Amino acid sequence: MAVTARIPKSKGLRSKAPKAHGPRPKARYHHGDLRRSLLEEAVRTIRDDGAAALTLRAVGARLGVSRTALYRHFADKSALLNAVSEEGFRGLADALEHAWTKAGGGVPGFEEMGRAYVRFALDNPSHYRVMFGVWSRPAHDDSALREAGTRAFQLLVDALAALQRDGVARRDESPDGVARYVWAVVHGIAMLGIDGRLPDGPGGVRDLANFAVRRIGSGIFEK
């Protein structure tokens, strides 16, 4: 896995914030960057009201732009949600790659990837809900979304394959199969945290993530 990526400074992520009380002030955007502003306003709407409440027309009205201007960037609500999802997967992939490389790969890198996954979900719940929700059209209709999602999962597969090649991980299962198992575990923890079923504090979701990656390792690493 190449040591190339760093977490971007600004990708429209980190959507975790208190809900606004009362009507929100009218949003603004800088001319020439309408697409970015549409994505940011969509994330705010999802955070405050949920993805089901999102409409392209309402987002445009919040920004004070015409329908014609909206449709230059997004044909419909699904296209806007796909763009939010794509942005989320790209941010997740960057976070996973950064975690692996910063830890120097190996078992520490694998464990840090698990923590980074949960941390990303907790820090960006609006993106995460859309990434794994039912609101956007199937990924096969959007090549950019499919590519972003594939990259995020492939980073985990590649990490496990590297551990197998180095004799660290057991070789009785394919890297792809083990990656699906690992993903299911950390995804479940992440969703419990986002939904408030686990506290975000001592003994809560992040501590559970630490415990889970260690216990996963005890099952897939050579003794």
Question: How is this structure best described in words?
Answer:
The chain has 2 domains: 34-74, Homeodomain-like (Arc Repressor Mutant, subunit A, Orthogonal Bundle), CATH 1.10.10.60; 82-220, Tetracycline Repressor, domain 2 (Orthogonal Bundle). The longest helix has 26 residues, at 77-102. It is mainly alpha-helical and 223 residues long. It has helices at 34-49, 56-63, 67-71, 77-102, 106-123, 125-131, 143-165, 175-194, 205-220.
CATH architecture of the largest domain: Orthogonal Bundle
Q: How many strands appear in the DSSP assignment?
A: 0
Q: Count every helix, treating DSSP H or I runs of 4 or more residues as helices.
A: 9
Report the structural category.
mainly alpha
| CATH fold-level topology of the largest domain | Tetracycline Repressor, domain 2
Number of domains: 2
Oligomer: single chain
Ranges with pLDDT <50 over ≥5 residues? 1-10
**Gross geometry:** elongated
Radius of gyration: 19 Å
> How much of the residues is beta strand, in percent?
under 5%
The succession of helices and strands, N to C, reads HHHHHHHHH
| Average of per-residue pLDDT values | 87
Helical residue percent? 55-70%
Could you describe the largest sheet, including whether it forms a barrel?
none
The CATH C-level name of the largest domain is Mainly Alpha
State the CATH superfamily name of the largest domain.
Answer: Tetracycline Repressor, domain 2
Instruction: Determine the N-to-C terminus distance.
Output: 24 Å
